[in-house]
Amino acid sequence: MSDSQKVDIILTELGAMMAIDSINKHDEDSWSIQFEDNKLVELFYISNQHKLTLQYNIGIPTLSEVNKLHDLLLEYNLCWPESGGIQMALNKTDGSIVQLFQLFIQDLSLPIMIDVLTNFIERADIWQAIIHDESFFNQKKSVKSVSNYNRFSSQLLI
User: Fold this and answer.
1) Which among 26, 57, 129, 153 has the fewest CB atoms less than 10 Å away?
2) Global pTM value
3) d(Cα 127, Cα 124) in Å, to the nearest integer?
4) Residue 13 and residue 145: Cα distance in Å, rounded?
5) Which pLDDT score, from 0 to 100, does residue 65 have?
6) φ, ψ for residue 107 (rounded to 5)?
């Protein structure tokens, strides 16, 4: 069975397990999941890396302090151990924020896909609220202080 066929089977089984309106296959390596609450997750298989990438368009920020938001998104990306590997990106074309997550196809199973999608959508909901909350930066400065973020202790070897 090919990796693409594995994704097809898991997505077919997923339809009965989550609140999904439709699952569409666009070509051999791309799908979209339309949830009942109008959320759309796009999936892309990168064959030479054996990875499945999930993508969710968070939206275009309405914050007046968009530069602070961009800084926060970069800081969030650095906190990958805490975010579970979810990454945030900026679509240069329209300024929208995009949430991404990649997983190896060999690790993919129905329970993992349900867990990943549930967490992915929960994070997207949080970021959608943040990008439209004018008071957010008055309440909180950052996700985590990255100036002290050093998980490795080191010593001079030579």
Assistant:
1) 153
2) 0.83
3) 5
4) 41
5) 83
6) -90, -5
